[in-house]
Predict the structure of YtzI protein.
Amino acid sequence: MWIVIIVCIAVVIGVLALSILTLNKGYGYKHTIDPLPGEEEEKQDQKDQDK
C-alpha cells in the first residue's frame, strides 16, 4: 500500500515540476508580430521623403 502512495506522490511531483518548467519557458518567450504591409510602405515613403 505504501509503495502505491509513494509512486503516486512521485508522479504528482514530476507533473508539477514539468508544468512549472513549461510555464516559465512560455513566459520567457519573446513574442513578435509581422508588420502590416501598409506600415512597411509608409516607413519606406517617410525614408524617401527625408532624403
Remarks:
- Residues 1-25 form one domain.
